[in-house]
TrEMBL record, chains A, B:
CDD domains: E_set_Esterase_N. SUPFAM superfamilies: alpha/beta-Hydrolases, E set domains. InterPro entries: AB_hydrolase_fold, Esterase-like, Ig-like_fold, Ig_E-set, Mycobacterial_A85_antigen. One of its GO terms (molecular function) is acyltransferase activity, transferring groups other than amino-acyl groups. The lineage of its organism: Bacteria, Pseudomonadati, Bacteroidota, Flavobacteriia, Flavobacteriales. It comes from the Bacteria. PANTHER family: DIACYLGLYCEROL ACYLTRANSFERASE_MYCOLYLTRANSFERASE AG85A (PTHR48098:SF1), ENTEROCHELIN ESTERASE-RELATED (PTHR48098). It holds the Pfam family Esterase. This is Enterochelin esterase.
Length: 391, 391
């Protein structure tokens, strides 16, 4: 009898639990509006105040349509007219890549703007953030983002970068400016920092409030490929295999030092000493910043690594000039990254940065609250970094 | 007996005819390669030497997948792995918008780059042209395309345009330049002339060959909306309804004259007299050029209309200064447009232009061979116009 009672109680509790889930799933707040990343004139995608993303697409003959965002696929449902609609669970504030799946085909949402990330041009959605004002398009003086095409001797090819010049650049024609070399992450390209990151608007807004010094930003393409395996030279015995592999950042380092920096300093009114040169990057771009500035601290006085590792006392031993030459070291992460740290060979970033600070370096550790390895973390990091650099 | 013979002959001929069609359809030349507009790292879309466009997409659960290009939908066929593949009939040389249809859903091809046209960001494909060299990316000095954000008093909003500055602009810092205001077509925007049109590369290449004078190009957004119907003011009796409606170009005219031109002349090193100011546009942008320059010939000395109507002796009567002030009038069409002329209230463009020439104007009529109302016609027109303007 007791057993049966327990069983009934168990079934009852399970039922309540399942119902609760269902009710929780259904209680979607109906205040959806188009996003900043919805194409002009299109009604969808939309976002609500919980951060849910709702998409809609007409696909009368389709059997199954899904919204694929944040690593989860959400089934849409079809109305009588063959139009599919549905929404995701609440997403973090900020920008996210996503796609639609129509009967097994992964395609961009025809209603969204497109961004280069995850190795492809595809859909992105902006979930409004409480602090979105700092990267909003406002009626303030604006700098220009210039598409600059140049020939790279290192790569024997024509390349392009984007160069931000501050609002006053066209006016103060005798003034020179410091330069930040700002790199995107893996699977992204030279368009990321302005399209997704709004680095130009962030700096425009900081400058309008007098919170940053004007500087030029150079955004180039740091994509690298695995070096081809040499058949003639077998793997040396005893050499530890690491990831990223030895020399992975050499290609971009050479392009940056031999082509990009000289090209920028020849074409723009820049100061060309290390005290007016900075490098920063996100994720892979942060790791490139790490490798390149540890190798050439004579070239850069400010260093920013956003979700891209950190620098330890051990690193400083191998790069003895770094501590003296680098006047600003800025390390940042999204709080969700720190909750679920990836395995890293560089140690704990907060502890590392504190150790450098204790040793006398001007080192900063920044955390973006409630964001992950995504653009909102990097927008916030860039904003903080921009208020500190070249001062 | 004779009847039967005829019937047999008829069936025989029909069979031969159908077979011929099938064979013709099947004789696809297998020399497909990725297009310049295929995303880096993607294998499809591809184009062959006939100008056929081949697309491929994995959609295992789909019942029907089509390639929708040039107003025709081509069925794709599915292999054993759920991958759909197929190609179009040969397309004209140059750039075309297209999309995929998956079980009734119209979506961008995940393998292509995206362009703004036909009122949306979507897929585009480049079919190699025999004369593609003139808009190719080469190792020559390159100008910059600058995203310029500004506040428009006329619209009480923040807008953006793209400004091309010639290669020498950053070097010859005391030099001033003439300015061309260059407008896109209906359903396109300020990105069209550089993304689809390659106006920057065309001028870079002409300058490298000494075939054009360096000038600045301003590409803004000329999209207009139907003015709201006034309830208080009924349609005047006897007023002929025309398309485009009376006053349709006033919005952009005001923005151009009151906001854009002053902004450009304040921010760039420009000459600011009419002899160093030109306006041109394609399709709707050509029609805007027509209306605006006929109304204000005091502001522009060179006028280009690409697939956007023409100017008649009758027009000159209503704009008495036009003939004297405008030193270059350039009218162009794709040959396929002239084969199938749209109904126009402006008369035959070739005859109109010849009449102006006969009356003493420096008027040019250009035809792009074997192209329609598409970008290849406008690239060629822009190239010709660029060699004539500001000389």
């Amino acid at each position: 009898m007791k057993k049966l009672k327990n069983k009934v109680l168990f079934i009852f509790l399970v039922t309540v639990f399942i119902n609760t889930i269902c009710i929780a799933q259904e209680s979607v707040i109906e205040d959806f509006v188009t996003s900043k990343t919805t194409q002009e004139g299109k009604e969808y995608p939309q976002v609500n105040s919980e951060g849910r993303v709702r998409v809609r697409i007409s696909a009368p003959e389709a059997k199954k349509v899904q919204l694929d965002i944040g690593g989860v696929k959400y089934d849409l449902s079809k109305d009588g007219n063959g139009v599919w609609i549905g929404e995701s669970a609440p997403q973090d504030e900020g920008f996210h890549y996503y796609q639609l799946n129509i009967d097994g085909a992964s395609v961009p949402d025809p209603g969204s703007l497109y961004f280069f990330g995850a190795g492809r041009w595809g859909s992105g959605i902006e979930v409004p953030a409480k602090d979105q004002d700092f990267y909003a398009l406002k009626n303030v003086p604006h700098g220009e983002v210039r598409e600059h095409i140049y020939f790279s001797k290192v790569n024997n090819s024509t390349r392009r970068c984007f160069v931000y010049t501050p609002p006053e650049y066209n006016e103060n024609t005798s003034e020179k400016y410091p330069v930040l070399y700002l790199q995107h992450g893996g699977g992204e390209n030279e368009t990321g920092w302005s399209n997704q990151g709004h680095a130009n608007l962030i700096l425009d807004n900081l400058l309008a409030e007098g919170k940053a010094k004007p500087f030029i930003i150079v955004m180039d393409n740091g994509t690298w490929r695995m070096p081809k395996k040499s058949n003639s030279k077998p793997q040396e015995e005893g050499v530890k295999r690491t990831w990223p592999p030895q020399g992975w950042a050499d290609g971009f380092k050479n392009t940056l030092i031999k082509d990009i920096i000289p090209m920028v300093e020849a074409n723009y009114r820049t100061f060309s000493d290390a005290s007016n040169r900075a490098m920063a990057g996100l994720s892979m771009g942060g790791m490139q910043t790490r490798v390149i500035t540890l190798d050439r601290p004579d070239l850069f006085s400010s260093v920013g690594m956003f979700s891209g590792g950190s620098i330890s006392l051990e690193d400083l031993k191998k790069s003895p000039d770094f501590k003296e030459k680098v006047k600003l070291l800025f390390i940042s992460y999204g709080s969700r990254e720190l909750e679920n740290p990836r395995q890293s060979s560089w140690g704990d970033p907060k502890e590392n940065t504190q150790a450098l600070k204790d040793s006398g370096m001007n080192a900063h550790f920044h955390v973006s609250q409630l964001t992950a390895h995504e653009w909102q973390s990097w927008r916030r990091a860039f904003k903080e970094f921009a208020t500190l650099v070249f001062k």
